[in-house]
Amino acid sequence: MSKITQIEGKAVPVEGNDIDTDRIIPARYLKEITFTNMGKYPFYDERFDAEGRPKGHPFDLPQFAGAHILFVNQNFGCGSSREHAPQALMRFGIRAIVGESFAEIFAGNCTMLGIPTATVSHAEMEKLQALVKAKPETKFTLDLEKKTLLSEGKEHLRFDIHESKRNALVNGTWDSTGILLANAGKTAEVAQKLPYVNGF
Amino acid sequence: MSKGTLYNKVWDAHVVDKLPTGQYQIFIGLHLIHEVTSPQAFDMVAEKGLKVAYPGRTFATVDHIVPTKSQARPFADTEAEQMMGAIERNVRNFGIPFFDFNSGNQGIVHIIGPEMGLTQPGMTIACGDSHTSTHGAFGTLAFGIGTTQVRDVLATQCLGLDALKVRRVNVNGELKPGVTAKDVTLYIIQKLGVKGGIGYAYEYGGSVFDNFTMEERMTVCNMAIEGGARAGYVNPDQTTFDYLKGRKYAPGTSPEAMAKVDEAKWQKAVAYWKSVASGHDAQYDDVVNFNGEDIEPIVTWGITPDQSVGVNDKLPEVGKFSADEVKTVELAYKHMDLKPGSPIKGTPIDVAFIGSCTNGRLSDLREAAKVAKGRKVAKTVRAFVVPGSQQVKAAAEKEGLDKVFTEAGFEWRGAGCSMCLAMNPDKLKGREISASSSNRNFIGRQGSKDGRTILMSPAMVAAAAVEGCVTDVRELMQHH
After folding, report:
1. What is the pLDDT of residues B186-235, one digit of tens each?
2. Do B309 and B347 share a structural domain?
3. Are B323 and B267 members of one domain?
């Protein structure tokens, strides 16, 4: 599994608090039994009209094409636990998300896919979103080891990220099955001690 | 840091190891799965050449995509049929117990866990569904997970988790007549906000919770996640034990005759369950206090569950919100086509939906039926009742609730998630506005990207159905 220490690229802003996972991916696309096509669907109903014509969502604006870093506000990814939401963002091309705050299940799902969820203050995010709107060609670097966000190679600001999530990403242990499985013996010991597992 | 709470005790009993990342490896006592978030997880397990580590600790049902009108196979929707085929294949191949249509026990995953007695105090419970917090009503640590985490639970019966803080949420005093558990949970979310619970487990307590039935406690814990708290719970007490005794998977229940309970085994279980409750000297990271008397029947007016008012209140002015909330508030008013300063009462509705994991249990249907009885659904409203499980449906029919509803002009359906998330044929159309007993008023949630949702209690939905608009149910209770 790869170590994720730096993510570079252009950024795209999606503004607003409490953007829920139903908005990130409408439930009708969850009927597919694989994640393969999810990259076609992020923010679908906000991006396209009834005839499938783009409505001018940032994900479809040419100046943000190819962006790898998503700038969002508070409580991004609230609501449903559907992993289809980060899957859709990842398969669209998003490699990192910087926001004011994240819903916990969503942030956990992102980590499992190797997507960092970095947090900055409200004032800092307002500046970042204004910067990327004014200069969409700006190249950002999210440095997980230094916890800094650089713009055009210069340190721009420091961000926060849950330490266990950062460790998992930089050490390449974000795909957790292996480390959990390595403790199978200890798992059996814990199960053995739980009264309900053994029928009281 | 919290100490001596149920959260701490249950967490400590399930810690397998501290991982190099700083997370903890936690044993999951009960894993529930459904058709939507599990197929990719089974594929991942198979691709890695792994097995299901503890197949007896995972239980499956189908709820999200099932049609509620006719459940005959094959489903008309080919994608839904394919999804059904996938879970049927997976439970067979991996040896997992499955509550399907023929079992008599199919239903919404958070309704059947408790009613089968699978959900028991002191457990850790995970499910690929955010409303897993419902099971916290029994004094469990229960939370929603994503599909890759479902894979981890299948393959290892464990999850890597970060510790949570614990906020004690007290509601003391008494509720006024016509005020329900749904109003309590909407009130808590209104006061603490949809982001207030991030990083916390909510421990609900106080006399209002002491007096609640298990079904009422489930309604509140169900919506902990809407307040940002991944888990919410109530300490187990005699109400919890009385509810569980004799249920199919409860300790001591005889497989032959459910009424015959092995008392010695049952008493051992009760003693253990009492031992996991928060102690009197428990320490919390935060404590908040509310008065039951302050709570009115609540309805939402916006696009997040904290955008709500008492049914007799006027909608808030945009200027009352903090600057960083204004964008969301303006979007909410635009989407809902409602005006600040105007009353919510009297807002016409097109659809009335009673059901969901929040309010699809027998007591919810009883409360709604009391309002519907002897009345007629307004001509402008399409109204339907979706029992949360096959067992709820059978019990309601035994009491004649189906007749009360159909005589009033409600449709009576089969068990499923229905229009709570509209992954099935039950959907809003165009700009329709629903009075809904479900849990989310998000844009597009009920199947139309322009559709609108007003959340309220099941009795309030019944009142809105017969009046054709948002109504204070207490006015109907007086004139009955």
Report:
1. 999 999 999 999 999 999 999 999 999 999 999 999 999 999 999 999 99
2. yes
3. no
Q: Domain span at residue B363?
A: 300-478
Same domain as B338, residue B245: no
Cross-chain residue pair B444–A179, CB shorter than 8 Å: no
Task: Please state the separation of Cα A72 from the chain's center in Å.
Answer: 10
- Is pLDDT above 60 for A99? yes
Total count of domains within chain A: 1
Task: Give the closest of B53, B65, B226 to A31, CB-based.
Answer: B65
Secondary structure (3-state) at A48: strand
Residue A50 located in a structural domain: yes
Residue A64, domain extent: 6-174
Q: What is the ipTM of this complex?
A: 0.97
Of A73, A176, A187, the CB nearest to B157: A187
Record: contact A197-B268, CB cut-off 8 A: no
Closest CA to B439 of B277, B221, B164: B221
Does B222 share its domain with B306? no
Dihedral angle sign, alpha carbons of residues B32, B35, B36, B38: positive
Cβ distance A81 to B194 less than 8 Å, yes or no, reads: no
Do B269 and B308 share a domain, yes or no? no
Res. B479: pLDDT tops 70: no
Q: Residue A155: pLDDT above 90?
A: no
Summarised one tens digit per residue, pLDDT across range A121-134 is: 999 999 999 999 99
